[in-house]
Amino acid sequence: MPSLKDLRNRIASVKATQKITKAMQMVAAAKLRRAQTAAEAARPYAERMETVLANLASRMTVTEGAPRLLAGTGRDETHLLIVCTAERGLCGAFNSSIARLARDKANALMAQGKTVKILCVGKKGYDILRRQFKDQIIELIELRSVRQIGFENADAVGRKVLQMFDAGAFDVATLFYSKFKSVISQVPTAQQIIPAEFDGETKAATGLDAVYDYEPGEEEILAALLPRNVSVQIFRALLENGASEQGARMSAMDNATRNAGEMIKKQTLTYNRTRQAMITKELIEIISGAEAL
Amino acid sequence: MATFTFELVSPERLLFSGEVESVVVPSSEGEMTVMAGHAPVMAVLKPGVVAVSEGKGAVRRLFVRGGFADVGPDGLTILAEVALPMEELDVATLAQHVRDAEEDVADAKTDEARQAAAERLSQLTELRDALVH
């Protein structure tokens, strides 16, 4: 049976924790709004980019001369997994669900006898994955010092990936991130970025018959666009991730605050019961003492 | 005058969206003016100024660097690598762009890349000189 003092201390510590989780929840809510606007502001660009590329790609037949970023290297041996996660924890299952998706994919690929390389963007994913894939992880890119993700950050990652591609370090690149659906729902997503893949939907929607003029030429434009698309997709992933992270943290902290509240209620009840029991006990002792006289 | 839909987007935000009368686009093959009913065309951009006429003589000027313009049946879309309203552009920012371009030239590994970077640099310095004077 814990003493009254123990109970009091316990209640005080839960209250302190609740204050922290509450504060974190409010900070996450404020950051979420900013991250969400950023993600939404970037959406038109990425969407237009996709439409234009899908449009171009649909009229380009895959021939020998087709850019490798579109057609691939013709092999399917080495896979690069770009795993984008958060830099900080305490955001529910956000990091682990992205990491799980990447891990499943990596295991499946390795079971097929393919080589897997992992590029981590964000420290948490690295922490989770390095236990199992110590030899596969080639690099960790930390964005901890970045307050607001700008296009330059994504471009830096994109360039690194392209450099590796040009050097023939991998054949297929897949991007792992969490798509922001709503505050309570974030969907971990895997997206293949090299060779570029377009879903049939956009293709059909943009299959315009318009005769396009190209300045300078179709190939030149495609050659300029494809590397850029890699950076744009990474940028979009990072922004979606940013919003998802804050959303996940907000609901996680909301849960934690509520749990702490419940715990305080229960502890207070025990505390009051114990207190009353002690008073009753003392009274009985006094009364029985008086009766004995 | 007939109008058409014009959108200017950079990776970070949507800078302009609305009905306009004409837009001057700095394409890599030379400047071109897009008006309503323009034939579909896709053009790579060089660093320069996009001049948007919204009608009644009002002209908005925006600085763009790199990217491309897409004229389709539903209007003109410019996807710019970097885009800024002219008011936000100052000599210091432009000088920074020039420095970046110079670094690109220095970093270029193949002749082809170096040539492309040098071309971009000369376009930028040209623009800077035009603005300063």
Automatic annotation (TrEMBL), chain A:
Membrane-spanning intervals of the chain: none
Main location: membrane
Gene3D superfamilies for this protein: 3.40.1380.10, ATP synthase, gamma subunit, helix hairpin domain
Keywords recorded for this protein, A-Z: ATP synthesis, Cell membrane, CF(1), Hydrogen ion transport, Ion transport, Membrane, Transport
InterPro entries: ATP_synth_F1_ATPase_gsu, ATP_synth_F1_gsu, ATP_synth_F1_gsu_CS
Compartment list: Cell membrane; Membrane
Tagged with keyword Cell membrane: yes
Membrane protein topology class: Peripheral membrane protein
Function: Produces ATP from ADP in the presence of a proton gradient across the membrane. The gamma chain is believed to be important in regulating ATPase activity and the flow of protons through the CF(0) complex.
PANTHER family: ATP SYNTHASE GAMMA CHAIN (PTHR11693), ATP SYNTHASE SUBUNIT GAMMA, MITOCHONDRIAL (PTHR11693:SF22)
Cited NCBIfam families: ATPsyn_F1gamma, PRK05621.1-4
Family statement: Belongs to the ATPase gamma chain family.
Quaternary structure and interacting proteins, as annotated: F-type ATPases have 2 components, CF(1) - the catalytic core - and CF(0) - the membrane proton channel. CF(1) has five subunits: alpha(3), beta(3), gamma(1), delta(1), epsilon(1). CF(0) has three main subunits: a, b and c.
Protein's recorded name: ATP synthase gamma chain
Organism: Chelatococcus sambhunathii
Automatic annotation (TrEMBL), chain B:
Keywords: ATP synthesis, Cell membrane, CF(1), Hydrogen ion transport, Ion transport, Membrane, Transport
UniProt cross-references to InterPro entries, sorted A to Z: ATP_synth_F1_dsu/esu (IPR001469), ATP_synth_F1_dsu/esu_N (IPR020546), ATPsynth_dsu/esu_N (IPR036771)
Domain of life: Bacteria
Signal peptide segment: none
CDD domains for the chain: F1-ATPase_delta (cd12152)
SUPFAM superfamilies, A to Z: Epsilon subunit of F1F0-ATP synthase N-terminal domain (SSF51344)
ATP synthase F1 complex delta/epsilon subunit N-terminal domain segment(s): 4-83
Assigned protein family: Belongs to the ATPase epsilon chain family.
PANTHER family from the UniProt entry: ATP SYNTHASE DELTA/EPSILON CHAIN, ATP SYNTHASE EPSILON CHAIN, CHLOROPLASTIC
Protein name: ATP synthase epsilon chain
The species this protein was found in: Chelatococcus daeguensis
Organism lineage string: Bacteria, Pseudomonadati, Pseudomonadota, Alphaproteobacteria, Hyphomicrobiales
Recorded name of the encoding gene: atpC
